[in-house]
């Protein structure tokens, strides 16, 4: 069975306009073309879609269902066309947990001022590629290297590594902590996107690990005092939470913030984004 978009457009136009004549005017085609498209659609589907009298045209019960589905199909096609045509006028940047931390608002405002013709959307996708592999974004902010050879990346900045603790934890009274202070604790990690793993510690003093897959769940468990977390400082900026405090881990190496993109299809705004982010991290 082969259905054509023009058949669906004719059906929707007839229902919306009320007559074949008005549907033809709305579509800019002849009334005969409208009739042919409807007839071929009904033949392809093997059912009657419209009741026609001298006074009105109304959908059958099946016609109502087909019209509803036709509207969704036509809307999806319109979205597809807009998506394909908006490559230079829209920029989607994915991130897994914490966008750009304290630089997020400054980046949005400076981008809007410098590039008013390219709309910026920040999209949270909790996956290893922060939405690149899923086709959800054009560029992605990631905080660990991507092994997938389809992607390339550049380091745009560094962030301190912080420990997230319950507010009533004894370590919360300190201004900073060391990795050795955390060795006997339960470390809550997201193995898909997290920046801190047991490998930060020496093999003979690694913490016990539990897993989570969402930053809100991560914060809730830490606030209850059962686990701790070690994360990039952007998480503290993006997710302040009553009952949770963040303390620098002074002997842990910083987290590299990377901008990633499709190696064979970089967005036209790539270089401008790299320059702006690098400047924000360098001066901020």
Short description:
By secondary structure, the chain is α/β, with parallel strands linked by helices. It contains nine helices and twelve strands.
> Averaging pLDDT over every residue, what do you get?
91
**Euclidean distance between termini CA atoms:** 60 Å
Q: Which class of the largest domain in CATH terms?
A: Alpha Beta
Approximate strand percentage: 15-25%
Shape: elongated
Structural class: alpha/beta
Q: How many β-strand stretches?
A: 12
Order of helix and strand elements from N to C terminus: HHHEEHEHEEEEHEEHEHEEH
Assign a percent range to the helix content.
25-40%
Could you explain the architecture of this structure?
- The chain has 284 residues and is an alpha/beta fold.
- The chain folds into 3 domains: 5-85, Orthogonal Bundle (Arc Repressor Mutant, subunit A); 90-154 and 256-283, D-Maltodextrin-Binding Protein, domain 2; 161-253, Periplasmic binding protein-like II (D-Maltodextrin-Binding Protein, domain 2).
- The protein has helices at 5-17, 20-27, 31-45, 61-85, 104-114, 179-182, 215-223, 233-238, 270-283; strands at residues 50-52, 57-59, 90-95, 119-124, 139-142, 151-159, 161-166, 186-189, 208-211, 229-232, 244-248, 255-262.
- It has a 5-stranded mixed sheet, covered by helices on one side.
- α1 packs across α2, α1 packs across α3 and α2 (20-27) packs across α3 (31-45).
- The protein is elongated.
- The termini are far apart.
- The relative contact order is 0.14.
């Amino acid at each position: 069975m082969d259905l054509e978009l023009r058949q669906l457009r004719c059906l929707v136009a007839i229902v919306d306009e009320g007559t074949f004549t008005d549907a033809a005017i709305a579509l800019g085609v002849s009334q005969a073309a409208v009739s042919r498209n409807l007839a071929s659609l009904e033949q392809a589907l093997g059912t009657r879609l419209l009741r026609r009298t001298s006074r009105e045209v109304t959908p059958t019960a099946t016609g109502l269902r087909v019209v509803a589905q036709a509207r969704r199909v036509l809307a999806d096609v319109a979205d597809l066309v807009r998506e394909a045509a908006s490559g230079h006028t829209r920029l989607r940047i994915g991130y897994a947990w914490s966008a750009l931390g304290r630089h997020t608002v400054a980046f949005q405002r400076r981008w809007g001022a410098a590039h008013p013709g390219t709309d910026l959307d920040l999209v949270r996708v909790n996956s290893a590629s922060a939405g690149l592999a899923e086709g959800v974004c054009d560029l992605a902010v990631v905080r660990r290297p991507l092994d997938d050879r389809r992607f390339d990346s550049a380091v745009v900045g560094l962030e301190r590594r912080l420990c997230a603790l319950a507010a009533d934890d004894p370590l919360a009274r300190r201004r900073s902590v060391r990795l050795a202070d955390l060795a006997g604790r339960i470390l809550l990690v997201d193995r898909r996107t997290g920046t801190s793993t047991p490998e930060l510690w020496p093999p003979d003093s690694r913490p016990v690990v539990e897993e989570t897959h969402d930053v809100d769940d991560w914060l809730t468990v830490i606030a209850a005092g059962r686990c701790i977390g070690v994360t990039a400082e952007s998480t503290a900026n993006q997710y302040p939470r009553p009952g949770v405090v963040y303390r620098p881990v002074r002997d842990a190496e910083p987290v590299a913030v990377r901008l990633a993109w499709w190696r064979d299809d970089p967005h036209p705004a790539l270089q401008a984004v790299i320059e702006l982010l690098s400047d924000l991290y360098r001066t901020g």
